[in-house]
Amino acid sequence: MEVALNWYLALSAVLFTIGTLGVLFRRNAIVLLMSVELMLNAVNLTLVAFSQSMGDPGGQILVFFSIAVAAAEAAVGLAIVIAVFRSEVTVDITEINLFKH
Predict the structure, then answer these.
(1) What number does CATH give the domain 27-101?
(2) Terminal alpha carbon distance of the chain
C-alpha cells in the first residue's frame, strides 16, 4: 500500500502550522527553537515527498545538508540560550533585554 503525495503534503502543512503557531505565541526561548526545528522538518518532509514522487534523489540530498545545518543551528541556538539564561536567569523572550547593560 503506497501513501499518496497529498497525505505527505498535508502532514507537512500541519507540522509547519504548528511550528509557526509555536513561534508566534510562545514566550519560552527553548520552545521557540523547537518550533523553528519543527518548521524546518516540515519543509524537509515536503522536499523528500516531492523527490520521491518525481524519482529524483536531488531533493533527498538537499534534505541531508539541511539536517546537518539544522543540527548546527540547534547547537548554536542552545548555547546562546544557556549563555543568556546564566546572565539573565530567565528564558522568557519578553523579559530579556541584552542592551540594558
Answers:
(1) 1.10.287.3510
(2) 61
